[in-house]
Q: What sequence folds into this?
């Protein structure tokens, strides 16, 4: 996803926040047994909720991993 303005991305269920700057791109991946994950705008924030019993990971355009909670990879910042 790419944004035309700065916004906060909230990764649930850990409530970890990442400031997505104008023009910046991030890639989000989730996995889990259910199909109830979502991405939604809420009060000007972008909320990413993985499926029930699932996990979410995200990367900046430079390839660095964004810390999204305990399921983030070992190199997450």
A:
């Amino acid at each position: 996803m790419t944004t035309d303005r700065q916004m906060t991305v909230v990764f649930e269920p850990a409530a970890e926040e990442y400031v997505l700057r104008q023009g910046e791109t991030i890639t989000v991946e989730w996995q889990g047994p259910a199909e109830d994950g979502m991405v939604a705008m809420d009060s000007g924030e972008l909320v990413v909720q993985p499926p029930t019993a699932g996990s979410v990971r995200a990367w900046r355009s430079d390839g660095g991993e964004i810390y999204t909670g305990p399921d983030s990879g070992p190199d997450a910042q």
The chain has one domain: 7-66. The first strand starts at residue 7 and ends at 11. Residues 2 and 25 are 4 Å apart (CA to CA).
